[in-house]
Amino acid sequence: ARLAQGIKTCADRVYVVDLIGQTKKHARIRSQETGKDYEVEWSAIRPLIKSEHMKRFQIEHSNKCLLFPYSHRGGCYEVVPEETWSSRMPMAWDYLKEVMPVLKSRERGKMKDRADWFAYIYPKNFFVLSQPKLCIPDMSEHIQVCIDSEGKYIFSGGAAGGNAIVPKDPSLLYLLAGLLNSRLVEASLRQ
User: Fold this and answer.
1) pTM of the prediction?
2) Quick one: pLDDT band at residue 180, thresholds 50, 70, 90?
3) Which residues contact 179 (CB under 8 A, 6 or more apart)?
């Protein structure tokens, strides 16, 4: 099995957005950073869950999304180039340009002079988090393992995020969730 932490953006107020409406082509989002509403292309966001959405065996509904400046090509994830943003996702690109000062100033200006200033500073675990997986919240009173059988959800790292277990054989997801959610495992962890 592979283990992975959630994604760290270093600017969750920009990248973690609330889905407040939708059409077939666009998502209507609200930015925590600006407090404003935007329409963006569906291809620019991914469904996001936090610890509060991870319950035993199930993922509760979340209206959170993650602005995701990466695309999957040839078995790996690459930063979406600026030209692609402006031509294929112009509404999301307009939002990124509006929050550019915030993104360039992350980690004491680490992204200031980079062409991909809109990328995450620490890109990791995208492939693992896109697989069928078990999701475990970082913080919970009791062990709560839920199942993302399609690899649909992504989550952040840190206090309100989670961790993933990706078994080599996805058919084991339900068995592993059953074992990990059991009273026996809970009791042994509390000792």
Assistant:
1) 0.90
2) very high
3) 185
